[in-house]
Amino acid sequence: MAASRLELNLVRLLSRCEAMAAEKRDPDEWRLEKYVGALEDMLQALKVHASKPASEVINEYSWKVDFLKGMLQAEKLTSSSEKALANQFLAPGRVPTTARERVPATKTVHLHSRARYTSEMRSELLGTISGVAASQPVSEKQSAAELDLVLQRHQNLQEKLAEEMLGLARSLKTNTLAAQSVIKKDNQTLSHSLKMADQNLEKLKTESERLEQHTQKSVNWLLWAMLIIVCFIFISMILFIRIMPKLK
Prior knowledge:
By secondary structure, the chain is mainly α. 82% of the residues lie in helices and 0% in strands. The protein contains 6 helices and no strands.
C-alpha cells in the first residue's frame, strides 16, 4: 500500500528531528521540542487514518518519537549522572527512517549522547577530585584510580538497572502477547458461535415456513373432506325423505 500524505509528512519531520538531535544545539533552542510535539500529534492522527500503515511500522514510529521525547527530557536534568542514567533507558529505533541511512539515526544519536554524558560526568568527577586534592594532597595516580573506580561502579549500576528494566519489558511483552493470543482465540470462538447461531436461525426459519405450508395444506384437505361428507349426508337425507313415502 502506498504511503499516505500524512505518513510522508511524518517521515519528513521525523528525519528532520533526528538530524537536529544529532547536531550540537544551543541551550535556548526550542524548535526541536516543538517539532517533537507536532510529531506526536501526527502519529496519533496516523493511527486512526484510513490508509494507516502496518502496526509494525506504526510501532517503529512510536519508538522513535518516544526516544526523541526521552532525549529532550534527559537534557533538562541537572546533573550529568542523571542524564547518563536516563539515557540508559532510552530505546532508539531499529529501522532507518530514510533509505539514505545505513544505521538508524536515533541509534547514532543515542550513542553520541551516551558518550557526551559520560564525558560530562567524568569532568564533574575530575572537578570534585581536584577540589579534594586542593585541601588534601594526593598523587595523580591515586586520583585517576579513584576516578576509574567511581566510574566503573556507576557504569555497573547503570548496566544492572538497564538489565532489570529490559527484563521487565520482556516480561511485559510476553504477558501482553499471551493475553492477545487468548483474546484472539476467544474472539474466534465467539465468531464461530455467532455463525452457528445464525445458521441455526436460518434453518429454524426455513423449517417453520415448511411447517406452516404443510399445516395450511392439511387444513385445506380437511375442509374439502368435510364439505364432501356434508354434501353426501344432505343428498342422502333428500333421497331418504323421497323414498320413505313410497314404501308406505
